[in-house]
Specification:
It holds the Pfam family Amidohydro_1. This is Amidohydrolase family protein. InterPro entries: Amidohydro-rel (IPR006680), Metal-dep_hydrolase_composite (IPR011059), Metal_Hydrolase (IPR032466), Metallo-dep_Hydrolase (IPR051781), OTAase-like (IPR057744). GO terms for molecular function: hydrolase activity, acting on carbon-nitrogen (but not peptide) bonds. Keywords: Hydrolase. With about 450 residues, this protein is α/β, with parallel strands linked by helices. The chain has 2 domains: about 5-60 and about 370-410, Urease, subunit C, domain 1 (Roll), CATH 2.30.40; about 60-365, Metal-dependent hydrolases (TIM Barrel), CATH 3.20.20.140. About 30% of the residues lie in helices and about 20% in strands. The protein is built from 14 helices and 17 strands. It has helices spanning about 75-80, 85-100, 115-125, 170-180, 205-220, 230-240, 255-260, 270-280, 290-295, 295-315, 335-345, 350-355, 360-365, 435-440, and strands at about 5-10, 20-25, 30-35, 45-50, 55-60, 60-65, 100-105, 130-135, 135-140, 165, 185-190, 225-230, 245, 265-270, 380-385, 400-405, 410. Strands 1, 2, 3, 4, 5, 15, 16 and 17 form an 8-stranded mixed beta sheet that branches. A 6-stranded parallel beta sheet has the order 10-9-11-12-13-14, with helices on one face. A hairpin with a 2-residue loop joins strand 2 and strand 3.
Length: about 450
């Protein structure tokens, strides 16, 4: 098997420990040795990569991915894209993620029933490149809930954003259909969404319907993920053992206690970037800050920041990603979440990177081989031109992602071996990622 040595790098190993200068030896698709300077990796490598002093870290995991969201400003524009063009779009976006250092991803729902599944299979077969991927279902939505955008005079489900159900038996049928198609997990919309004209604090599904979904998933060894902004929807996730909770904006103290008591079971991927960008950065697309306030997004951002800070203090696993793929937050800008984690949730830059790396290995169900730079782990590695611990924003700059290795294969080659001075950290009050409105919304 081919051996690749990466030398002269500063290593962030994903554990949360201090960075160190050193070298990494990859054999085949595995890391076989990590050496701390002045020690060197042993043996002879077939290929030597001089990192030029750059920052080496594990590949990141995007925990709330919608590859089929097509960078448009409406849900309808996503759904109405023809299926042939839509899968080609997904293939292109998957490459974009990999080039930005996202080597794994959780599919948080597809715009059409089989898009995630087809893309996952194509990546696994080597027909296209992209993150190692766990495929989600289309959003399972209740009649009149988020995802039901059928019209009274055109009541055709094929025109709807989600797969519409009403009652436990329709939930069972939907679950079995998506499991037949080959999903890794099922996605259910347990709350509303302001942009769809539904309160985020709405909880439209009955416990009987949710119990049917989770029982079918358990019977078939599948996980369940939920769009759950409201307090009650988060409680439903806990009561029914739903593995992945998206959003969790309005969780109150009692709900946080329940979540903490079950924190080994659940992951939270809050999509805080959606709240920030929609509140303050969507004016070009008709959602001015005033309109966003009328919709409820800045208020939800404030509530989410408060609840997520509490989750972080309680040791609940919070991971980056979510709802990128809209016009005001296009695919490829996902690493903005890491700075938002610092500014809104109170994480340190190190904790934010751990959430994207080590915790990513956990949500991918491969904690012993993904998300860290350690011997025996899969060789998913990213070389960054600059120090993300000083400026997380550099992870949003394509030119600063100097090299991406996935499964021991170099997917994005080293273009510039010369070191660049690490960017100076900009405090939240002066952060160029945040406009004035967002700065004022950052909780103290």
């Amino acid at each position: 098997m081919k051996k690749i040595a990466i030398t002269n790098v500063t290593i962030f190993d994903g554990s949360g420990d201090d960075v160190f200068k050193g070298e990494v030896l990859v054999e085949g698709n595995r890391i076989v040795e990590v050496a701390h300077f002045p020690n060197k990796v042993s043996g002879t490598a077939d290929q030597l990569i001089d990192g030029g002093g750059k920052f080496l870290m594990p590949g990141m995991t995007e925990a709330h991915t919608h590859f089929s969201w097509n960078d448009q400003p409406t849900l309808s524009a996503i759904q109405f894209m023809p299926p042939e063009e839509h899968i080609l779009w997904c293939v292109d976006v998957a490459r974009r993620y990999l080039d930005m250092g996202w080597t794994s991803a959780i599919g948080a729902a597809a715009a059409k029933p089989r898009l995630d599944i087809v893309l996952r299979n194509a990546i696994a077969a080597g027909q296209c490149v992209g993150p190692r991927y766990l495929a989600g279902s289309q959003e399972i939505a209740t009649l009149g809930g988020l995802g039901d955008n059928t019209l009274p005079h055109l009541p055709f489900q094929e025109l709807s954003f989600g797969h519409i159900v009403s009652g436990p038996e329709e939930v069972r049928k939907a679950a079995r259909m998506f499991i037949k198609y080959g999903v890794d997990h099922l996605k259910i919309n347990l709350s509303g969404e302001y942009i769809a004209g539904l309160s985020a604090e709405l909880s439209p599904f009955s416990d009987e319907e949710i119990a049917m979904l989770t029982s079918e998933a358990k019977r078939n060894n599948k996980r369940v993920a939920a769009h759950a902004r409201s307090d009650e929807s988060v409680r439903q996730c806990i009561r029914h053992g739903i593995d992945i909770i998206f959003h969790a904006s309005f969780a109150n103290e009692e709900t946080l206690d329940m979540l903490e008591a079950n924190k080994e079971r659940h992951f939270v991927a809050p999509a805080i970037g959606w709240l920030v960008r929609t509140s303050f950065n969507a004016s070009e697309y008709g959602i001015t800050p005033e309109i966003a306030r009328q919709m409820g997004y800045p208020q939800e951002l404030e509530a989410a920041a408060a609840s997520l800070r509490q989750m972080h203090k309680r040791g609940i696993r919070i991971l980056p990603g979510g709802d990128y793929g809209f016009a005001w937050m296009p695919h490829g800008t996902n690493a903005n979440d890491l700075q938002y984690f610092v500014d809104y949730i109170g994480m340190t830059p190190t904790e934010a990177l751990v959430s994207a790396t080590r915790l990513g290995g956990e949500i991918m169900m491969r904690p012993h081989e993904l998300g860290q730079v350690r011997p025996g782990f899969l060789a998913d590695l990213v070389l960054v031109d600059g120090d993300p611990l000083q400026d997380l924003g550099i992870l949003t700059e394509p030119a600063r992602i100097a090299l991406v290795m996935q499964d021991g294969v170099i997917r994005k080659g080293l273009q510039d071996a010369s070191p660049r001075t690490a960017a100076i950290h900009v405090p939240a009050s002066e952060n160029p990622l945040l406009d004035k409105g967002v700065q004022e919304a950052v909780p103290a």
